[in-house]
C-alpha cells in the first residue's frame, strides 16, 4: 500500500500501486475540485485542467501530451503542476491541491 498525503485537506489516504490519483481522491472523499468545478469538470479526461495539483514530494511519471498541452502556461510558473486525472500512483506522494 502507498500513501497520499493531501496537504490542504490535512488528510492521508492509502491506495494500491497504479491507482489513479483523481479516482483515489474522489473515492476517499478528498475534494480536489474548487467552486463550480466540483460539478462541472471533464470527469478525468484531461480536458478541463480543473483537477490541477502540485506534487510536493514523491515520484510520478513524466507528463503526458494531454498535460503538456493543458498546463503549458502554468508549468512555466510552477514546474511541479500536474493533472490528478493523469497520474498513476506508484510512490508515496504529498499533494497540494487547489493551486
UniProtKB/TrEMBL annotation:
<dbReference type="InterPro" id="IPR001041">
    <property type="entry name" value="2Fe-2S_ferredoxin-type"/>
</dbReference>
<protein>
    <submittedName>
        <fullName>Ferredoxin</fullName>
    </submittedName>
</protein>
<feature type="domain" description="2Fe-2S ferredoxin-type">
    <location>
        <begin position="1"/>
        <end position="99"/>
    </location>
</feature>
<dbReference type="InterPro" id="IPR001055">
    <property type="entry name" value="Adrenodoxin-like"/>
</dbReference>
<keyword id="KW-0408">Iron</keyword>
<keyword id="KW-0479">Metal-binding</keyword>
<comment type="similarity">
    <text>Belongs to the adrenodoxin/putidaredoxin family.</text>
</comment>
<dbReference type="InterPro" id="IPR036010">
    <property type="entry name" value="2Fe-2S_ferredoxin-like_sf"/>
</dbReference>
<keyword id="KW-0001">2Fe-2S</keyword>
<keyword id="KW-0411">Iron-sulfur</keyword>
<dbReference type="Pfam" id="PF00111">
    <property type="entry name" value="Fer2"/>
</dbReference>
<dbReference type="InterPro" id="IPR012675">
    <property type="entry name" value="Beta-grasp_dom_sf"/>
</dbReference>
